[in-house]
Batch of 2 targets.
Target 1
Amino acid sequence: MQDSAVAEFEMSEYWYIKPNFEEKVRDFFAQKREPEVVLELDIPGKDFNIAGKGSSELKNLLKRLGVDSEILRRIAVAGYEAEINVAAHSQGGKMISNVFDNLIYMQFMDNGPGISNIQQAMTPGFSTADDLVRELGFGAGLGLPNIQKNSDALHITSALNSPTLVEIIIFF
Amino acid sequence: MTETKYFHALQILADNCTGCTACVRVCPTEAIRVRDHKANIDPYRCVDCGNCVNVCRFHAIIPLSDPLEIIHKFKYKLAIISSSFFGQFTEDISYQVAKQAVLNLGFDQVAEEAAVTDFMINIIRDYIRKNRDKRPILSSNCPSVVRLIQLKYPSLLPNLFHQEAPMSILTRYFRDKISKEYGLEEKEIGIFLIVPCIAHVTAVHQPEGAYKHLQDGAFSIGMIYGKIRDSLKELQNNPPSIETYPQGLTWALSGVQAELVDCEDIRTLSVNGVENVMEILSRVEDHYLDQYDYIVLRTCTNGCVGGCLNVENPFVAMSRIKKMIKEGQGSDFDTSELYELYQKGEFAVVPLAPRPIMELDKDIKKAIQKMKQINEILTMLPGLDCSACGSPTCYALAEDIVLGKASIDDCVVLLRRHSKDSEEE
């Protein structure tokens, strides 16, 4: 019992990399390139009017760069779900979209309360959404699985009572 | 850019234009700029939505339609009336009277869009069921919606309902029928539409996707309304007996049309107003609305009753049409021949090509460079989106500067700040 209590406060992480993308993702993190364009946006907690603005702005930006429409759709869906997650489950946070000439690297960081069991959170249908969130039609437990389905790489770092960082990479 | 010349059914009267930028701010595709105190429309970007016509207080943006006299060039003259027409009259003027008055303008026959609404609902349902791989199917009747998709949401082009609109279906049916009945050559028959919006005028003069020549002209509902007003009183005293199709008038109302297509296996959504249409198309792009089988999209308020060539308010017109649908007793229009033609694929339209306006450059590296320049300029601009420079927003001005269409000196706010600074020095 004591052991698990301690474990809960340790940072845990979750990695997903689409098959055959391992090398590309490793290269990306190794190269440490500066992004070409950065889009930064605050996401207030429980504000579902604003949540979604970031991914819609990002989609318009990427349309101007001529990114393929199917890839655009995956970026918009993954971005939107992650934004909704921050709004629904955290006390607010921000979305940073780093645009490179061959990929998008999105970061979502919030101010807690953190995810106690990431593996469980990844299970389709599992949700900790409260009544307010469910009343608004969110909280079906498909957010994270949907993000993973549309991403080339997904990295989640979190712990209970700590901020959560969700990183998403999608190649053009 | 492309070499194709794009016609639009509107005209800017430079003498009347004050350069106020009201039109610049309401254009959904940012097609208008004020340069040298006069508004200019980029024909490549314009979708004929009519927002600028509605907002201009100086009668500087004038909708164009054909003069009625052109009908006399033809031996046989047929008018096809858009459904929204019948919502324009006060309730003491009956449907029959309004229709007879149009006939009296010099036509040999008057047909109605409303006559084929039932047929349209059936072929839309058939099309939805035959194209299960595409969801949602998007209505294609509104030419502004179709152009908007070509320009801003080209990935959705395959989702369009790829069949002719009702007035074009009627045109083809009647041209053939009249030619046989009266032994006339096709070119001796003049077929004209009476339309609620400039997008339909543009579509008549520059049809997209049609396999063959359709109409010979388009008249504005407002113009026809003015011409028949005097004869209405006379006709009221002597009510004509003429066939009408009140149940089909639903075509003018986007919401009611969606309800009619909706059935056990088809779920529909109705959207009107250009801002709403754009928001919905953006969500369709991301597959968030795949649960709908069919979406009725109209850029005008409440559907075609909101078109800029109508004379009555769209809500009043809608209420009148709803009353007519409820109270009216319709005639039957024999559509068996139309079904045969549909089965043969006669009403299919050519898939449309995209006309993208969003991309800064075909090459992503160059596009990124341009975007960086835009962002750099944007940090210098005041961010008020006041449009005083003649571009709709600070972002649009920054983009215009990078594309060589404007200069930073066009920013009035910056200019004033600079002149203040130099005064203080």
Target 2
Amino acid sequence: MNESILTLILLVPLAGAILVALAPDRARLPNWIALLTALVSFGLTLHLPAHFALAKTGFQFEINRPWIENPAIFYHVGVDGLSLWLVVLTGLLAPIGVIASWNTIQERRKIYFALFLVQQTAMFGVFISLDLMLYYAFWELSLVPMAILISMYGRKDGPKAAVKFFLFTFIPSAPLLVAILWLYAQKNTGSFDFVTLQHAIASGSLPAGPLCWAAFAFLFAFAVKVPVFPLHGWLADTFSEAPVALAMIVAGKLGLYSMLRFHVGLFPEQARALAPYLIALAVIGVLYGACLALVQRDFWRLIAFAAVSHLSLIVLGIYGFTFTGWDGGVYQTLNHSIVEAALFVLLGALYNRYATSQISSFGGLASKLPQTATLFVIATLAMIGLPMLSGFVGEFLILSSTFTGVSRGWAVAASLGVILGAAYMLWLVQRLFYGPESEFASAKPAFDLRFGELAVLWPLAALFLVMGLAPSFWMPVIEKGVNPPQEKDRLILLTTAPSGSSSMAQPQGEGQK
Amino acid sequence: MNPVPDVLRLLPEVILTLTGVLVMLIDASLPPGWGRRYLGWVAAFGAMFAMWASIWQLRLPEGTGFFSTVETSAFTIFFHVLICGIVLVALLLSLDTLPEDSHHQGEFYALIVFGAVGMCLLTGAVELLLVFIALEISSISTYVLAGYRKETGRGPEAAIKYFLLGSFATAFLLYGVALIFGATGTTQIYEIARLAPAAQNHSMVLVALALILAGIFFKVSAVPFHVWTPDVYEGAPSPVVALLSTAPKAAAFALLLRVVYEAFPSLHAAWSPLLWIVAVLSMTVGNLAALRQENVKRMLAYSSIAHAGYLLAAFAGLGSSGIAAASFYTAAYAAMNVGIFAVITLVSGYDDKLPLVEDFRGLIYRSPLLGSLLIFFLVSLVGIPFTGGFFGKFYSFSAAVGGGAVILAIIGLLNSGLAAAYYLRFALSAAQRPAERKGEAALPVPQVGVAVGAALALAVASTLILGIYPREVLRAAEAGAHTLQAPPPQTSEPPMPADTPVRP
């Protein structure tokens, strides 16, 4: 079972997609098949934390089989502490996505759910691939269903947003491919294997100049996907057009995970050299995103710029090069994804009922939609980092590590962004749910959340609380991923800082919980 | 080693010829008014039989026959199977889409089969005069097929344009062959390889090579010999374009591989930069022109020019890696291109009623199957992993990098990014909600028949196999590459007696 679990996780959504495509399009049959598949694959991902051995080092549940002989591409998959919760998270978001699409997708359900499940496979593939070509293949594959679905189900101008999304992410992946091929072509590598390449690069035997370019190509592709300021141009359009089930998975975790694993993990020295710039961009992103979120009139765009701000904070945690920052970054990635999922389900419900995303059209909904208002407030509080809810842990770890390990100035600036975050989110809540009831809203009949939506949102709300109260349940695995216990591995992950770099402190080992 | 009967060396061609003759005879002896549709099935079975025969040829020892003019080797078998597969798909496609009442149905199928004879012969010929004959057999059939829709103005225009320019191109080739004969006293490819380096008049050999390459560039529609492509694709019936854009190109690329790697390896320094330039020009010009096209077939015509460029990039590779990459790309390109033209045929019909990108808007809502397939083939043309297009480009550009042409590979990758823009526009327009058509009748929902279904299934399966499990095809391509690189095989007969060598 442990051998084949990852392959099963990868194949179950694909099999579900084929089943959806072959089954007749009768009533809600595609929905049910997709839901069942999503639940099964979520159940399978739960096998991973249940059988994850904290004592072991390196990757677990590994399979390494030759796929293509020339060039030597292997089907090499495995998870470690870094990817474990992300795989589970991807599994969790699948049924949420299906339920969020339950009533909004009325036509061509078969294509929608088939592509949704293919997207699921692609994302699992990104998180578990340890062969760079395999990783690249899934990375590219993840673009296709997303672009097609944005185009098919776009709210106003789907194709334009889809083209923007696709080109923004596809073009940077060309240098990524060149860099991967260059790594393969080096004399002492001859492999796409992550671990082999990590050792080869750490041994310092590769030519330094091209290696810098290769590292930069990796970084560029990931930075667009996160997105890091100033590469965020695609995000707002995608959020306004994409079906909610896809909008909630498009940004953030794929890029952030790739940064940690394949940029910081593969090229620690080059990443460290660029870290000051990335820290600066991240702080600018935090403030810029927050400021723009304050002035948006459309709630999808507001959430998009809020995402830019929050994701930049995680980038700050990653490139601060402290273990605490990495812990916080991974934790915040998880938190951001589930909070985003809850917000998208809620806003999707509002959009469905009122057919507009203009914030000014709403007002005073709390009395008519009490459940929606309650859950929205809970999600908002989790997002702005109220202590005891999930947002607090990650933000605190990132900010405190920046304060102690990087520079006080950046930490203060980033904290300002967090305060602004509270401002725009609470203002959004106020404008949507409180104050006098708007004429537009009172003219429409009020429907509160349906059973399916409640069945998704309450468990998510509970999860915010659990993640906020008991970080120690999740942390050991994450720490294991970013902070290998053995000195030897630690050296690979973190070569010592070049002497003379003042602001970059040595990694901080102590946890701060 | 037992001598192999000569006829076995030509088995697929013989089978195809017999099939073509049979189709024509039945067509002529049936009373007028009888349905001639099943003649297509006869031709399709002939193509299948020929494919089987080429695979069977693997048992023959490699070597030449008919006075060292025809070769059977892993290389020729690779291309024979590929060409027979394309022809099979094109025949199945025509079966369901040719209008029931169209006259000359029998001739249509016979012409496709005769064209296949020429293309197969072209890949197996190791004697330049036979190359010329084979090229003419395949060209004349395709000239006629290109003009098959006589009633539209564009059909005859396409045929005339293709015929006139094509005749010039073959004339160039023939002129090159004559010059080679003048310089070396032979037209046999192994003899040329032996004699060309020692030829006294070196510049004559160079001119001959340039002329031969010009003829081949026309056939693969490489820039600057590409101008016929969009007009011919637009004017010819779509099932014919499915054939025209793949099979003759596959054969011509086989010929190009044979000419540069087997006849003139000694002139590597001369043809290598030339191919480099033509590759860059083809992909750039093709993609830039395709960006502006509104007509689907013209867009794909320019895209095929760009793909010829990607394929030529493989020729920068060193020896067998370049040959294998080029062969693999030919197969991948054929699979996805035949597929996309099959979809286009079904959607816009034999008469091209819906020729514009805008007409494909909302296809996925009208026909989920065809819409999904269209997007699938476009995704493969973009070169997304898990499709044949990805490994095609991947091997081609890695071969180029392996041969030291890093800049060529980078230009190629940038071009693929550029190409994604127009493929994507097409794909996303098919995925978009259909436009409101006020006062007009709803667009018809295309039906997928048995034969077309089989053709589409073949194309999808090959594209997927080349993208997920390319190992076997790549091995076959590498085996072919080795036979092309190996020293000339032992001939069972002496070479054809040549006249007294002319040495000016």
